[in-house]
Amino acid sequence: VCAATLPDWLTLSLSCLSLPPPPTEDDVDLEALVNDMNSSFESLYSTCSSVQSESVPLLQHNGQVHVHRDHHRSAPMPPHSHTSNSELQHSTTSPKQRRRRSQPMHILAVRRLQEEEQQLRTSSLPAIPNPFPELSGSPVLSPGSLPPCQPSGTYIINIFSEDGMGKVVEIPADMTARDLCQLLVYKSHCVDDNSWALVEHHPLLGLERCLEDHELVVQVQASMTSEGRFLFRKNYAKYEFFRNPLNFFPEHMVAWCQETNGAIPPSQLLQNFLNSSSCPEIQGFLYVKEMGRKSWKKLYVFLRRSGLYFSTKGTSKEPRHLQLLADLEDSNVFTVTTGKKLHSAPTDYEFCIKPNKRTELKELRMLCTEDEQSRTSWMTAFRLFKYGIVLYQNYKIPQQRKTLSHFSTPVRSVSENSLVAMDFSGRIGRVIDNPLEAQSAAMEEGNAWRKRSQRMNILGSPSPLHPCLLNSVIHRTQLWFHGRITREESHRMIHQQGQVDGLFLLRDSQSNPKAFVLTLCHHQKIKHFQILPCEEDGQIFFSLDDGSTKFTDLIQLVEFYQLNRGVLPCKLKHPCTLVAL
């Protein structure tokens, strides 16, 4: 038989096994040749079993099993002598066993052998000496003994105040927004009333949001663009929802999976929002800006724990009519400060959902509401659905934060509960509960202070200022007085610091140079009250109600209305404060 007529696998096997050359006769016994090849395979298999560490079976694409040998370490196979057909038949195995040996090795076995070989190579590598054996207890470093990769080291953060001045702070990688605010309060000598916040601000996009207390500042900075910055300012509305939950969500905005009878108590409302197993839903009409366009559409929108959806068919809630607008997990909600100017928004109450990455303007999901209360409700619901019980834990954490190693921050409160009217006319002071009596005591105290100033001026006061002149300038040292700012600037400051009831500031009047203006927020609406000077017995007084209640200076006026509402819609609770870093 010619060699060209033999199968490919038979020709390759003959060349690999170094079989003796065929006889020179033209008539060759093919059966004897096959039996001789099988006996060679059997001897090869026994040799591979004895030197398993020196050979690795590989499964080829054609299903054959080939054995690669180490020619440097193993001895060559001796050539087989030519024998008779009967001797070959005695030395060969049964046909059943030949079929089993000729089948390809299972792929799992091959993988297992390869993994064992990889482990053998890894174990043969030299061990790395541990430079700090006393810390880990092992003189050699192994992959399992190495600590996991954690953010470490210190980072440089730039913090800016409202006046544009900045401060460079070096912080550790695990510092939260709450801890950084405490550090800035200590360094800036501010009053720590637990209302300071760190704000993520994007001036080119016109976006800003208040960081949650548990967020890591370094991680937030990594997702910001080069033009983004951190601002340090007050935010009284951060946890206002937990104080007055019923003021946020009207009944027509909240839908529940279970039927409810009547109004929901505040405790139940909080529990439903914070419980991850409940399914509250915020619903209502919103203006939605089309992606990549300047046009806006009014759509019926649903906010759920799974995301923000809109209905393609009226107010239908069927799944086939709902489309996803934004995901809550990898996004944050921002207030838009330049809505009408930059995005041609239909109203001034715009907010957006921004992914937690460096994004462009076209990737933002712009939304708009009809009024400020609706915008606050939607943004608060987004935060509750995203963070849940973590927000409540931030609110309930003791106000004394982590004590830093080298200082202790003084904690002071300026809440209305710490301001009470006192009567010290007797031996023992008492608290005045009657508002009318408190008003009378305030008037008497003001008159006594004025008489005392006059007497000091007659006897020779160390102050070069006249009492009337002193009364007109002493208020300029207070944090709630902001001088000659415009009406629009006062609105912007009230908006930025939360728009809660009782948030106030005082400023110079633009229409009357001798008068002042009290700017007060009530029910998310900003109102202005003019403080006019009035003269009596040659002395200058200040009054908010056309002379019915008169005060010698603005400090006394503010302290009185912090205790009594009077002609105002609410008491003065939170001073609108700016800080210089």
Characteristic terms for this protein:
6-stranded mixed beta sheet; alpha+beta; 581 residues
Structural features, described:
The chain is of the alpha+beta class and 581 residues long. The chain contains 17 helices and 25 strands. The strands form 5 sheets. Strands 5, 6, 7, 8, 9, 10, 11, 12, 13, 14, 15, 16 and 17 form a 13-stranded mixed beta sheet that branches. Strands 24-23-22-21-20-25 form a 6-stranded mixed beta sheet. A hairpin with a 2-residue loop joins strand 21 and strand 22. The N terminus is likely disordered.
Structural class call reads alpha+beta
Radius of gyration: 42 Å
Shape: elongated
Rounded mean pLDDT score:
74
The low-pLDDT segments are 1-5, 9-20, 22-26, 51-93, 95-106, 133-148, 402-417, 452-467
Largest pleated sheet: 13 strands, mixed
Strand segment count: 25
Helix coverage percent: 25-40%
Strand content: 15-25%
Instruction: Give the count of helical stretches.
Output: 17
User: Alpha-carbon distance between the termini?
Assistant: 100 Å
